[in-house]
Write the structure tokens for this entry.
Amino acid sequence: MEIYVVKSGDTVDSIAQANGVPVDTILYNNQIEYPYELAIGQALLLSKESPTGERKTVETNGYAYPFISEGVLDQTLPYLTELSVFSYGFTTEGDLLFPQLDDTFMIRAAYENGTYPVLTLTPFGPDGMFSNYLINRIVNDMAAQERLIFQLGETVIEKGFQGVDIDFEYILAEDRVAFADFVRNVRIAMNEIGCFVSVALAPKTSDDQQGVVYVGKDYALLGEAADKVLLMTYEWGYTYGPPMAVAPLNKVREVVEYAVTRIPAYKINLGIPNYGYDWTLPYIRGETAATTIGNIEAVQIAIANSAQIQFDPIAMSPYFRYEKDGLEHEVWFEDVRSMEAKFNLVQEFNLRGMGYWQIMKLFRANWLLLADRFRIRKYGQ
């Protein structure tokens, strides 16, 4: 597969003719709908030949809520090794809390596509936010911890999960070691019933990195405690921050370079965002809140507002500006060029694979490119 960047005067027909690719294939790969308009600077994925030669086998993971469209799920699962159901919680006493919506259809669909279903465990408080109070209680109260681990085991067996993903954020510095011990205890118990345990890691670049997101995550301890880890290498550009790439490659690289000095590469999955943000300008800290958008939606916004898509060669991410209703906007998102740059990092550092936050919106070109560049490990292989 090849990547083509749209130039002034291009049409789907002219691109198809010049590259010897069927029009329908271009439309399908890139989710282009009638009247088949393009944006200057838009990156298109062109299918030319089937993959040949040796390709690295990787593990792929995608997070999804139980309200995901079944159509999106069905089109995505063929490209996933694991489907992480988001999410299960717990009380201070160690009682496991189930998602409000039934996730049975997700587990069933995962198995039908040779994909492992995974239970994602999160410490959400009553306000729906990560609670370091809940974390503090569960990692330091052994009776509550044992209760939670027992109920996790029961649920994993009853519902057919093949793994547990521990996604705890804003861990207190004083709970750094206790949290790693908790991950180890969960892993030992889950391994005994044939399940793996993964842990999500904030994107650190040094052992002593400060900040509430980082101080409770010890890469070396957690890399040893879990079967594998996910580097959450996204959210540099975020809802309340200034306009910038969600996962700038130069920043992502720094995290990977540090991570492989603390954790074996074969345990590391690279986090990849499947979304972008639309900021209204001027950006005012504490007031401006970006709107989360899908990658296909971003291109549609550019087309609707006659914006030309640019590509930052350092962040390796697409962006554009447009004006609407007298207000200027700045958009950063992901396309096949930015995805390929991240895939190249997985290759360069020989990582285990990648994990997507999240798969609620279909980005077909990403999955087609992924399958072209790698062999995807599936259940039973």
Remarks:
- The two ends are 25 Å apart (CA to CA).
- The mean pLDDT is 97.
- The chain has two domains: 1-50, 58-275+336-376.
- Residues 142-159 form the longest helix (18 residues).
